[in-house]
Amino acid sequence: MLHLSKDLPFSVVTLNDWQLIKVSGADAAKYLQGQITINTSKLTPENFSFAVHCDAKGKVWSNWLLFQNGSDFFYIERKNVAEKQLTELKKYAVFSKVTIEQENQCGLLGFAGKESREKLSAYFPQLPTAEQTVVEKEGITLICLPKPTERFIIIADSGKLAQIKQDLAAQGAATADSNQWLLLDIEADYPIVDLPNTNEFLPQALSLQLVDAIHFDKGCYLGQEMIARAQYRGINKRALFKLTGSSTSLPVVGESLEMQLGENWRDSGTVLASLALTDKQIIVQAVLNNDVEEATVFRVKNNPDSLLHVTK
């Protein structure tokens, strides 16, 4: 059973739907600087940053949670886009001293829910905070995410993760799968870019500027011209939204919803993610026109009995 953040007990959450990628080598920072939307020179080992990898037209291949460990960089993205995204990121790597690969020696584990900090403090002597969002010690990296409520990602080898999971479960931690983390990301307005939606949207259509995933003052990078034009000339007319309501079926990722116009319905927007909260209640993350009104009524395509509204 999935829980909204306000109701979630302290839980160990598997993150099997996310992938850790490692970027290393003498030119790693320089190479990433020419590929992604943030200024890598501003990244420090003490804090992560959201970032975006786009094509030359500014369309998003994937969005990342990026952090640095020593001279190496790591990012977390949705697993189902990793192969395609890595192919695109490696296109120009032959000219640089850089290695880009899936990091399979380490795994990911999430912790969220009530009293997460208190529970984890008994296990880890130092936890990341809002001021220092990344802590690394003895081969374990901990990352603190502030929204929708404080939660944590732990990165370590599989043996250590198994032991941590076992120890905390013995202390009463609940267990949850990747869908629980997906729900928390939807609540937090962190966009979910899965394979059907790669190479479809400008970062601003996913509201990624609102989580500081685009540095508009940095130098040239792939897709910068279109991203800057969308920002300063008002070309982008779309944004990220959450919708909740009743439905006995889930909308398909990559398809549109239907918006009510008088007595008629019209295809509108694109579904990024959806989850069932109960047998009849669902939550949807979608890209819609940025001027949509809260009172607008939507429904799941081909399901006339469903009813959805934009929610904050």
Account of the protein in words:
This is tRNA-modifying protein YgfZ. One of its GO terms (biological process) is iron-sulfur cluster assembly. With 312 residues, the chain is of the alpha+beta class. The chain contains six helices and 18 strands.
What's this entry about, in short?
With 312 residues, this protein is an alpha+beta fold.
Portion in strands: 25-35%
Biggest sheet: strands side by side, in what order? 14-13-17-18-12-16-15
Individual helix count: 6
Report the order of strands and helices: EEHEEEHEEHEEEHEHHEEEEEEE
CATH class of the largest domain: Alpha Beta
Tell me the CATH architecture of the largest domain. Answer: 2-Layer Sandwich
In angstroms, what is the radius of gyration?
20 Å
**Poorly predicted segments:** none
How far do the termini sit from each other?
22 Å
Mean pLDDT: 96
Ordered list of secondary-structure elements with their pairings:
Blueprint: E1 11-14, E2 18-24, H1 28-33, E3 49-54, E4 60-69, E5 72-78, H2 79-89, E6 99-102, E7 106-112, H3 116-121, E8 134-137, E9 140-145, E10 151-157, H4 158-170, E11 174-176, H5 178-188, H6 224-232, E12 238-246, E13 257-261, E14 264-268, E15 270-276, E16 281-289, E17 297-299, E18 307-311
Parallel strand pairs: 1-11
Antiparallel strand pairs: 1-7, 2-5, 2-6, 3-4, 4-5, 7-10, 8-9, 9-10, 12-16, 12-18, 13-14, 13-17, 15-16, 17-18
Give a quick set of tags describing it:
312 residues, alpha+beta, Gyrase A, domain 2, Elongation Factor Tu (Ef-tu), domain 3, 2 domains, 7-stranded antiparallel beta sheet, 6-stranded mixed beta sheet, 35% strand, globular, tRNA-modifying protein YgfZ
